[in-house]
Specification:
The protein is an alpha/beta fold. It has 14 helices and 17 strands. Helix 4 packs parallel to helix 6, helix 10 (309-320) packs across helix 11 (326-332) and helix 10 runs parallel beside helix 12 (348-359).
Length: 433
């Protein structure tokens, strides 16, 4: 049973939903727009209403006019090939007069802080940019209730601040906003209500009594890094013949963790793909030592295609020639309870951990992680930090692209900023000796 004995009333203002991964948060949110049970199936007992509509009796196409929803996986929410058409899609479905649509689209793009993306192909967007396009699409319809499921998980600090500001504006207008997040610091000061979902049980508590969970980073080693694993010299990378990054000079050594920071769309994912060999350099060179490359993309669903989580890990072990059992890394990431489950049926946080487990068994030579803490609660992030430290101490060279400042502080030996077409040392280094 995903949820049980839920009695909940959402008024105007900002409601924050918190809880561990897999506890039922997304199931609760999807009741509000009727995806549970009309799309995802399942059974509901009792009553559920939103905006005067009986959720069990009202088709989702009607509920969509009342409830704007931004999913955990914005890459799965995109329909059209350009940003403008994507944001206009919901307005067209709501039968907004054609003459009003361009102005509504422009207003929504500006409110989400992405007016500069007007006209861009959606295929060229970063994960964080896709999240903000999904937000603009929801805001354009001006729904009575806006539901945001992990809306800042891939956003840079400026983007996260824009999402919070938009949520506050909607609440100030007398409408309702529900935000499910693991990173609660910025939200709690503005929250009118805190709903905690744990193991299917739902409790409403005073947000003023909330205390942030402590992030327990393991002690850092003092050893020097080893030899060069990958070297980029005056390299350039981009798409459609146009470089996004130029004159990249970068060396990553065995036993070293390099963190990448920078704005959404600045080129962090492009740099990881270049290092992984998924993009050929448009200029310069990229040289790697032989050995396995473990690459975690922003969208974990792109990796998961086997019948069970255990099969995903076993597939990598078999392909890599490493020895070992899947159970070791599954235990390391606290995934034993879902080892026999189909990966795409898991919660977002569990699916993220499953993708990490699928790429990181054994000891890869080079590890490339793109927003690895996406959707992870505090306990899962602690486990990921311990795993990164173990791989680093085992000699792996590791590059992590992340907006998670706590993760950078816990694991990074060096921090680089990827922005404005360049890769340079960050203004404030995160090295720890």
């Amino acid at each position: 049973m995903a949820l049980r004995d839920v009695s909940l009333r959402i008024e105007g203002g900002l409601t924050v939903v918190a809880g561990h991964s897999g506890g039922g948060k997304s199931s609760l949110l999807r009741v509000f727009n009727g995806l549970v049970p009309h799309f995802h199936g399942g059974r509901i007992s009792g009553r559920a209403e939103v905006g005067g509509h009986d959720i069990l009796e009202t088709p989702t196409r009607i509920l969509a006019r009342t409830v704007g929803f931004v999913f955990q996986d914005p890459e799965l929410q995109t329909v059209y090939a350009t940003v403008d058409r994507e944001v206009a899609f919901g307005l067209e479905n709501a039968a907004v007069p054609a003459a009003e649509i361009p102005a509504r689209v422009e207003e929504a793009l500006e409110e989400a802080g992405i007016g500069h993306l007007a006209g861009r192909p959606t295929s060229t967007l970063s994960g964080g940019e896709r999240q903000r396009v999904a937000l603009a699409s929801a805001l354009a319809v001006k729904p009575q209730l806006v539901v945001l499921d992990e809306p800042t998980s891939q956003l840079d600090p400026d983007g996260a601040a824009l999402v919070l500001a938009a949520a506050r504006r909607i609440a100030a207008q007398g409408r309702s906003v529900i935000v499910s997040e693991h990173r609660l610091h910025a939200l709690m000061g503005a929250a009118d209500q805190l709903v905690v979902v744990e193991d299917g049980a739902v409790a409403v508590i005073d947000p003023r009594g909330w205390r942030a969970p402590q992030f327990s980073a393991p002690p850092r080693h003092r050893e020097q890094a080893g030899g060069d694993v990958i070297c980029a010299g005056a390299a350039a990378a981009g798409f459609d013949g146009r470089p996004l990054l130029e004159r990249i000079d970068l060396v990553v050594r065995s036993g070293e963790v390099v963190a990448l920071m920078g704005p959404n769309g600045g080129g962090k994912t492009t740099l990881l793909r270049l290092l992984a060999g998924l993009l050929s350099p448009m200029a310069g060179t990229v040289e790697r030592l032989p050995g396995r490359i473990a690459y975690l993309p922003q969208n974990p669903a792109a990796l998961l295609h086997r019948p069970t989580v255990r099969d995903e890990v076993q597939f990598t072990i078999d392909r890599s020639g490493d020895h070992g059992e899947p159970g070791a890394i599954l235990a390391e990431l606290s995934l034993q309870h879902v080892a026999g489950r189909y990966p795409r049926d898991l919660s977002s946080g569990e699916r993220q951990r499953a993708a990490v487990a699928a790429v990181l068994p054994g000891t890869p030579r080079l590890v490339l992680l793109d927003e690895p803490t996406r959707g992870m609660d505090a306990g899962a992030r602690d486990a990921l930090v311990r795993l990164i430290v173990r791989l680093r101490d085992g000699g792996s060279a590791i590059v992590v692209a992340t907006h998670d400042a706590e993760l950078r502080a816990a694991v990074a030996d060096r921090v680089l900023t990827v922005a404005g077409g360049t890769v340079a040392p960050a203004a404030v280094e995160a090295a720890r000796g």
